[in-house]
Structure formats: C-alpha cells, structure tokens
Amino acid sequence: xxxxxxxxxxxxxxxxxxxxxxxxxxxxxxxxxxxxxxxxxxxxxxxxxxxxxxxxxxxxxxxxxxxxxxxxxxxxxxxxxxxxxxxxxxxxxxxxxxxxxxxxxxxxxxxxxxxxxxxxxxxxxxxxxxxxxxxxxxxxxxxxxxxxxxxxxxxxxxxx
Length: 160
Prior knowledge:
It is a single chain. Helices cover 43% and strands 28% of the residues. The termini are far apart. A hairpin with a 3-residue loop joins strand 4 and strand 5. It is an alpha+beta fold.
C-alpha cells in the first residue's frame, strides 16, 4: 500500500513539474487583472459623452424636447426615470434599470438642446470594479446602455 501511494505521489510530482513556469511579472499582471474585475464576463464601462443632436429639418430642438425624447426612450426600454434636483435646474435625468429583480444599473443623463451624455452612476449585483483608472462591470451593462442610447437617438430623429 505504501509503495502504491509513493508511486502516485511520484507521478503527480513529475506531472506538475512538466507544466511550464511563467515569469513573475506575468503572474503579477494576471493577478492584478483578475483582482480588478472579479465575476463573470467583465467589460470596460462604456460611457456615451457629449453626443451631438443633429436637428431634423434644420430646426433646432428645445431642451424640453430632448428631455421628452430621453424619457420616452427610457420608458420604452424599461428604464425608470427618477426626478433629481439637478434635472429641474440644469437638464439631467437619472435612469435605473432592474433586470430579473436581481441586477440594477443606474445612469445619469445630462442634456442640453444640443447634446446629451449617458454616464455610469451606480449598479447593484453587476460585479463593478475600478482598477488603475479603468472601470469594469458585467458585459450586459454595456448592452443595456447601448440599447438605451440607440432608442434615444431614434426618439430624437422622430421629432419633426
């Protein structure tokens, strides 16, 4: 029995000794990468900054028309608009999306008559992490925000 156990140990040691070794800096970079964004399917957060609104029929839109288009697009995509103090004072909407009663994404949408942005604000259960000035989150966040951005663009294009 002892000989068999010893044979198994020798086989295991020789098997693991055959694995390649990696330079210490590669190991450290790997460790940093995995510690920065734990969880499944991490992606760098995509913000949409200062998207220029091109007026249809060369007639400029008002800030109120832009606000209504953003709110309509958000509602159509199941985002919930939250009234904020900044919205009334200077053109900013906060929108949140709850998915399967488990994941929440919150964005700020500052806007004027000429441009708007969609910026990450907060999330729940989305594996958010920040490392070396880069923010990571579950990849579905970017999909949801991209859909919101496309819907806003479509609503703005529909204004005559």
